[in-house]
């Protein structure tokens, strides 16, 4: 959506009465996701400013989805009928120093929350590459960040509040609700409207990051675990050419007065002499500070600054998760497709994520490697490459990111989630008439 359109929509959201559709605010322009590749199926958008208004909207409509920050590349959050926006419900509700938790409105973005937490002496354990995403949306899709000992963003959730299909409000917590909680955190938007999230906190900390260039692929084969354990969070960026990793991004915590100087080489890669963008041709202006300059955790864990357009702008994204024990085999399997992949690729990123216990998480019960692809915006070509990648990753039962592009069949996807039947039972309990079902859920979770 263009900046002018966004401003008009934001103003209208603030001024429009409840239960009045925000339709045709800009004639002829449809709602799209941030990258512009996906056009949503309706512009019937209703704004809620309180839990009571959420309940009212949920009760009024037979079909409804939440429209969040629109960072997904597929139809997981789409609706042909009605959208509800919680954009104005984006406040910190309470900070519990004794419990080391914060409770926030679910539509709050990480980029909003993080500076507040830091000012109070707290931090989150992990952040995604982009700080622009909403907390509820990130957790619902198992969005992750990086680190061999770091779980994805949903692993910080201690409790959440959901408005179910009949307008009831349910609160689930890890401490009290067991399986229902483990099913509801990574919920794919299927259970209802998440209105509040409580997150576990830790003491604030400083970080720095270094970038190394041209890591030989042979070193990845021989020392993968050591390479990925070289920092609090490590990312490898590659175009799959020349038997090398283009860039290694190492993010490490600054402990006390430690003024450690970066080594000139890292497993054969050379320390960069200037800030770099993961896509070499692009300016590093919108990337977080590198060169070992210490800063707050929330200004180093993401790759991109909050105030800038994330990544490259017009792009497509795909991502597949494989067991970390199979990481090297999976990397080499994809590398064999380099000449098919590279013509359509901007860059790939390799990251590790620790295991969790959320039923529909891509890292459920398995420490994982995430193989990410940032594609040129050419779906006709990308749609031909994805089945090739999925075939190569078939031996590892790869799980695609819920919010990104994939072509895996419903039967194969479903077979990779052992708790899916139990998840469906909970969906039936929370949403017996399928109010929150959409085409994406019908085809992936309920398709054959």
Number of helices: 12
- Kindly report the CATH topology of the largest domain: Alpha-Beta Plaits
| Overall number of strands | 20
Q: Shape, please?
A: globular
Alpha-beta content class = alpha+beta
Poorly predicted runs of 5 or more residues: 1-27
Top CATH class of the largest domain: Alpha Beta
Beta content comes to 15-25%
CATH architect. name of the largest domain: 2-Layer Sandwich
Helix content: 25-40%
Q: Report how far apart the termini are.
A: 34 Å
Oligomer: single chain
Computed Rg? 21 Å
User: What number is the mean pLDDT?
Assistant: 91
The number of domains: 3
Largest sheet: 10 strands, antiparallel
Describe this protein with a few key phrases.
23% strand; FAD; ten-stranded antiparallel beta sheet; 448 residues; flavoprotein; 3 domains; D-arabinono-1,4-lactone oxidase activity; FAD-bd_PCMH_sub1; alpha+beta; disordered N terminus; FAD-binding protein; Uridine Diphospho-n-acetylenolpyruvylglucosamine Reductase, domain 2; Alpha-Beta Plaits; Uridine Diphospho-n-acetylenolpyruvylglucosamine Reductase, domain 3
